[in-house]
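re the bet — no i am not wrong, look at it urself. input seq straight from the record:
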Amino acid sequence: MSQHSSLKASGFGVRHRNVLKRFERIKKMKMDGQWEDTMSPFGLPKIKSLKLKVRKVKEAKAEGAAAGTAGAAAPAAPAAGQAKAPAAKPEAKPKAGK
């Protein structure tokens, strides 16, 4: 008799979990130096679990292309006395209350 497909344990479909299990929270607290052996494993504080995305840098690719056509389409540099203004940050939208 074969095992039903829903009961198979596989790495396929593994997602990022926001909630850590108790032993995972204790392990993270030990790494951060917040855990003592005399502490109770019950009533642990919530620990934020973040998944970081790494983006590829396209600037290096663009610099390589610009080096090949440096004389053809070089962007105009600002004058010596003028500094480039920082980009304006978009303002946060207020959340609608119930």
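see?? The mean pLDDT is 74. told u. also The radius of gyration is 26 Å. so pay up
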